[in-house]
Design goal:
Radius of gyration: 18 Å
Number of helices: 8
Largest sheet: 6 strands, parallel
CATH topology of the largest domain: Rossmann fold
Order of helices and strands: EHEEHHHHEHEEEEHEEEH
Strand order of the largest sheet: 5-4-1-9-10-11
CATH superfamily of the largest domain: TPP-binding domain
Number of domains: 2
Structural class: alpha/beta
Amino acid sequence: MKKIVVLTGAGISAESGLRTFRDSDGLWEGYDVQEVATPQAWQRNPQLVQDFYNMRRKDAMNAKPNAAHYALAALEEQYEVTIITQNIDDLHERAGSTNVMHLHGVITRAQSSLNAALTYPMEGWEIKMGEVCELGSQLRAHVVWFGEDVPMIEPSARICQQADIFILVGSSLAVYPAAGLINYVPNQVPKYIVDPNIPDINRLNSMIKIEEKATVGVPELVKRLMGS
């Protein structure tokens, strides 16, 4: 069975109503990312950061997978599919994808503020101050902040090296180290990009371009790949 590797970014979640700071001049839902998405922000004002991610978690849980998420899940009928996502929501899983790697964490889990490897499933949308991990440290969102390591980047790079087909959806390749993953895909592998605004950068020139929003372009591509 051929291996398809899909790298997804904010564009696929945006169509489910989830915004990111990249859409609005460094602001995420009205907050400066330096105030809510860095270890320094957590040290300065943990309550603000906790409240911010509680609201983002509530938004993510209320959002629904869209046609692009469901189309990617359908690819598993004919291919071995790995989705590598920069997004912190769980919409791929809820659409039925069974092999999803979250580069930047997933907001529906909590993690220890002392040891990022200690993560826990959540039942509701809220982490309260005073809720602690097994080491006794405060629980926080399982999200990789700016300035923190991206532990899933090396396993993701290895997966990209094994791709028979590579698909990029809804990412401007502006966020590193995720943007570097395309460099690990073998040269001869067919590469597709689905985005309504494909950036004019050299490393995308060899890709097959589908200039559509994800909910249109991804189902179209999936039909093509599945021969229907």
